[in-house]
Specification:
Layout lengths: L1 H23 L1 H28 L6 H36 E2 L3 H13 L2 H12 L4 H10 L12 H25 L3 H9 L4 H29 L3 H7 L6 H10 L4 H26 L16 E2 L3 H28 L2 E2 L13 E2 L2 H4 L14 H30 L4 H11 L6 H11 L1 E2 L2 E2 L6 H23 L3 H9 L4 H12 L1 H17 L4 H4 L7 H9 L4 H30 L2
Parallel strand pairs: 1-2
Antiparallel strand pairs: 3-4, 5-6
């Protein structure tokens, strides 16, 4: 009797949950359809009309082809260098315990969250003409000019890309490495295989899918890089992304920008499809292990040298630019614009105090504190959009079916579309009521939520899938309707995942620069836009204010990453 009741309740729950799964897709698909696919179709339509109508004013071989070649070249070289650093770092985090590991993990994650303007400011504070390294070398060797001239070179672009994307390799490949069953390696060693042969024939085949996925993802981010090229490479380097921005904002040549966006969109979507196909194939099944199983302290001298040396490399590459930024924001070395007389060099908090003062009494002045307020408001709104839509989509994806598989791929498409292309699409499409790019205040957070939505779904959906169906069936047997099952069974289990997803969406919105550079109004800039403006102005005060804002943004993002790491450790 009890089993019959339980069977009927389970069947009733299954039917009730399957039916809402269809309408759960309504809001996410409508949102994506209007704010993502509609702008992309508009870009493609504009590009097609320009190509067919003969109104295209662009020299393909003189402008498009060099930009495309350099885009692919720098992305391939950046990806190779990122793997050189990232794969040993993934081994470090997956296999060893060492002091300061949690802090180093936060330091390796932070660059991926920070906006490019903050990274540019950090490298300028470290390696610029008046950076710490040049000042040290000039003082030690009594030089009159800066010996290190790396900014506005290809080396600066490559260095910044490695700075940004090393964490992708660590997270993707390192997570897979940490889940390998140590008994497989132990069996290989018991059969007499050397360490290198064991790695080549046992570990590497298991890691191959995650390495391919990480490689394609890094290449995709390097291929669509915008802020790094614009700020670190200087005017002599131009990628497809930079050309789209220049053709739109400086030359007002929207048809040419549309052609470039269509070309970039085709390539990035192809890379995204290739990543989903190759990254999901595993020749040998992974055997999960207990958390922390197989990790060990460094025992031999070789292991100790590797752990110490790799930790030092990551600290110098990923943490030192950010520490240089923070130190430079409280140090006065140069004169303000128009200042005469002696300069009081040394430690100062004047740059932070100047964030609240309109020293030139300009009517066009927007206080940086207002930019911070705008960023926080946009971020909170973006979190509301991304979490609402991502939660609905994640609940819907938790049900099997071919339609869900296809719709899930649609949700991931914003990852493969650059923020600059998205911003251009908004600029071209929303030119009148009810949504006007000139007056509609929600376009910026909507663009941010589109960037964050795939990440939110990637965090929430596995957490929902991990809930045993028996818990839902037990609640149904006790008479709980589906909405109460979701409220009292699903949500408490995924509470931590929802908090992590919300924090991640918040930090993504705070640091978004590409789409915002198209959409933000001059009177309502975000912090990354304000930092970029101040970095472009002469004078030590403007530069110091840019560093102060960048430091504040870095600290906020750092706290968010630390909280996410603590939540993940307590799961």
């Amino acid at each position: 009797m009890i089993s019959a009741i339980g069977g009927r309740a389970a069947a009733q729950l299954k039917r009730a949950v399957r039916q809402p799964a269809l309408w759960l897709w309504a809001a996410p698909l409508l949102f994506l359809g209007y704010f993502f696919f509609y702008p992309l179709i508009s870009i493609l339509g504009m590009a097609g009309q320009a190509a067919l109508g003969g109104s295209l004013k662009i020299d393909f071989w003189g402008e498009m082809w060099p930009a495309l070649v350099f885009t692919v070249w720098q992305a391939a070289l950046s990806t190779l260098l990122t793997l050189v650093v990232g794969l040993p770092a993934a081994f470090l985090f997956a296999c060893f315990h060492f002091p300061g590991k949690s802090l180093l993990r936060v330091a390796t994650t932070l660059p991926f969250i920070l906006p490019t303007v903050v990274a540019a400011a950090g490298f300028n504070a470290l390696l610029g003409p008046r950076g710490w390294l040049n000042l040290l070398l000039m003082a030690v060797f009594h030089l009159d000019s800066a010996p290190v001239q790396i900014l506005n070179t290809l080396g600066a672009i490559l260095l910044a890309h490695v700075f940004y994307n090393t964490t992708i390799v660590i997270r993707v490949t390192g997570s897979a490495w940490a889940q390998l069953d140590p008994r497989l390696e132990q069996a290989g060693r018991a059969l007499g295989a050397s360490v290198w042969r064991n790695f080549r024939e046992v570990t590497l085949p298991l890691l191959k899918p995650s390495i391919i996925a990480a490689t394609l993802l890094v290449f995709l981010f390097d291929f669509t890089s915008f802020g790094v090229i614009l700020l670190m490479g200087g005017p002599k380097f131009s990628t497809l992304e930079v050309e789209i921005y220049l053709q739109t904002m400086q030359m007002l040549n929207l048809p040419a920008a549309g052609i470039l966006s269509a070309l970039q969109l085709a390539i990035t979507l192809g890379l995204g499809w290739l990543s989903s196909r190759l990254g999901g194939v595993r020749d040998i099944p992974l055997l999960p292990r207990l958390k922390g199983e197989g990790m060990r302290p460094a025992h031999s001298w070789g292991e100790k040298v590797f752990v110490g040396g790799m930790s030092l490399v990551l600290a110098l590459l990923l943490a030192l630019p950010l520490l240089s930024l923070a130190g430079r924001s409280v140090t006065r070395l140069d004169a303000d614009r128009g200042q005469r007389g002696a300069i009081d060099s040394g430690l100062t908090l004047d740059y932070y105090g100047a964030l609240f003062v309109n020293s030139n009494q300009s009517i066009f002045y927007v206080p940086p504190v207002d930019a911070a307020r705008n960023s926080l408001g946009y971020a909170l709104t973006a979190v509301a959009f991304a979490m609402t839509l991502g939660t609905l989509a994640s609940f819907a994806l938790n049900h099997k079916g071919r339609a869900n598989r296809f719709l899930g791929l649609l949700l991931m498409l914003p990852i493969g579309v650059s923020a600059v292309t998205l911003g251009l699409g908004f600029l071209v499409t929303f030119t009148g009521p009810p949504v006007d790019v000139r007056s509609f205040p929600l376009l910026v957070p909507i663009a941010h939520s589109l960037v964050a939505l795939p990440f939110v779904v990637r965090i929430l959906q596995p957490a929902l899938a991990s809930i045993p169906n028996q818990l839902r069936q037990a609640a149904a047997v006790l008479g709980a309707p589906p909405w109460r099952v979701w409220l009292e069974v699903d949500l408490p289990v995924v509470g931590r995942a929802m908090l992590v997803a919300g924090i991640f969406a918040f930090t993504i919105s705070l640091g978004e620069f590409g789409a915002t550079s198209f959409l933000a109004r001059p009177e309502t800039p975000t912090l990354p836009i304000a930092i970029y403006r101040y970095l472009s102005l002469p004078g030590a005060l403007n530069y110091g204010q840019a560093l102060a804002m960048a430091t504040i943004l870095m600290l906020i993002c750092g706290v968010c990453i630390f909280v996410m790491e603590r939540i993940s450790l307590t799961e």
